[in-house]
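Reply to thread "Modeling small-molecule complexes from scratch"

Following up on the discussion above, here's a worked example others can learn from. I took a protein sequence and the SMILES for flavin mononucleotide and predicted the complex. Inputs first:
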Amino acid sequence: MPADHAHAHSGCFDLAAQEAVYRAIFTRRDVRSHFLPDPLDDDMLARLLMAAHHAPSVGFMQPWNFIVIRDQRRRQQVRDLFLAARQQELPHIAEERQALYRKLKLEGICESPLNLVVTCDRSRSRNSPLGRWHNPEMDLYSTVCAVQNFWLAARAEGVGVGWVSIIDREALKRMLAIPEHVVPVAYLCVGRVSEFAARPDLERHGWGSRLPLADLIMSEEYCGDGETELKDAAARLAGTPVGA
Ligand SMILES: Cc1cc2nc3c(=O)[nH]c(=O)nc-3n(C[C@H](O)[C@H](O)[C@H](O)COP(=O)(O)O)c2cc1C
C-alpha cells in the first residue's frame, strides 16, 4: 500500500503535512522586534481569526471575541499602560536581574501594524456550565487555545505575533470599553516581520532557557519516578525535529 494511502486510512497526515505542523510549532516565536509596517490584508487576518475560532472550547462555548485595534493614538495609550505596568513590576523582579529586565524589549504595540485583544465572555454558557461547574476557569483556558491556534496559523503565513501581558487589566478594560463579565485574555501585537528569531528572545538574552523535557515527565503521580524509556526517547530528541 502506498504510504499516502496508509496515512489516509489511519487518519494521520502525510509526511509533508506532519512536517509543516511541527515546523509551525517549533519555529513559532513571540515577536517584539522586527515588525514591518506593511498592513495585513483582511483576507489573511480573517484566515487567522478563523483558525482561532476553530479552537476547542469547554461545552463548545466559544467564549472569545476579537477586538482589532489599528488606531495609532489608542495604541500609544495602551503602550503608556505597558510602561506604567513595567515600572510597577520591576521592584518584584530579583534585584540581580533588574538591569537585564530593564533592557529587554517586551512589546511591539506601536511598531506592529495592528493589535488584537482576544477576550473571554464568561457569561456565554447561558446558565448551562457544561464542563465548568467544578472548574469555571475552563472558559479562560479555551480562549488561550484560540490564541495558540491564531499564533500557529500566523507563523505558517509568515506573520509575527507578540503577547503583551504587562498591562493593568482593569485599566485596559476601561480604555477599550470591555464589560465587567468579559476578560481580556491576550493583548497581541500582530504583523509581518523581517525575520523570525531562531531562539526565544528571553533565551538569547540570558533570561532563561528551555527546560529538558525528560525532567518534566512524571509517572503515575506528581513527582512519581518511572517512564525511563519515555524519558530516554525525549532526551534523544534533543531539540526539535525541524531544527528550529
Ligand atoms: C501568557 C503569555 C504572556 C506573555 N507575556 C509577554 C509579555 O508581556 N511580554 C513579552 O515580551 N513576552 C510575553 N510572552 C512571550 C514569552 O516571553 C515567550 O513565549 C517565551 O519567552 C518563549 O519564547 P517564544 O514564544 O519565542 O518561544 C508571553 C507569553 C505567554 C504565553
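What I'd highlight from this example: The chain has two domains: 28-207, 211-238. Residues 28-207 form a domain with the NADH Oxidase fold (CATH 3.40.109.10). Questions welcome below.
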